[in-house]
Design goal:
alpha/beta; 16% strand; four-stranded parallel beta sheet; 10 strands
Length: 277
Amino acid sequence: MDNRPIGFFDSGLGGLTCIPYLMKLLPDEKIIYFGDTARTPYGSKATTTIRSFSMEIADFLVKSNVKMIVIACNTVSATCLQDLQHRFPMIPILGVIDPAAKKVADQCSEDNRIGIIGTKVTINSQAYKTCIHGYNDRLAIYETACPAFVPLIEEGIIENDIMDLTIKYYMDGFIRDNELDTVILGCTHYPLIKKNIERIYPNLRIINPSHIVGEDIMRILKERNMLSDGTDFENTFFASDLSENFINMIDYIFKDESEDMKVKFLNFDLERGEGMI
């Protein structure tokens, strides 16, 4: 058994969408989450910049004594997973792309036409297509970047006409021209607009990697005998810019969770090292 928390990080608040499902799956586990809200979005930045930011945050999580790190960001998973695993070989580090790719390969057939939406960096890396084809190279995969989604979601612009129009701008032609029946949400922010997408495209099957990654977390912890048997540790949410909107979005994401869930919020300045647990 290992009662230390699991570390999650993302460029902002999108990675939070992984956590409610994990709490249902493994209710005894606790988490430390870091959202780099001061420097979001990552999806349009250079790979060297993304790698530098990710190393800083992973250093912070390791010093905070987490037992595992989950890269709850597709952009970082696409560009930095192996670098982080090499830097921290003593701790399991999991990205979100491979678990989703396995699920797609299991659930889809050659008859399906599968679209991937994500940030520019994720799409340009072709990490999803490569990973999925590693499991089944006969699947038809199409990709498109939707760079405006993350900034809108970070601002809480979700349940309104602006978001719906932006979804249609990116996805109408993409779905029509490629005759898609399945879409993978290739960014952990995108589950926050899943209901919008379902309403606009009711016949589209949507695959949400934010839920799928929880199953791999459970598998790894079981294999290593690292499951928690309960702890009083409070789930802790760090942000490099602890804005009112960040806290509001946590309330929005966890609105269906238990009211007595222990949570604390802390602002953390990576450069000054303030806020360390």
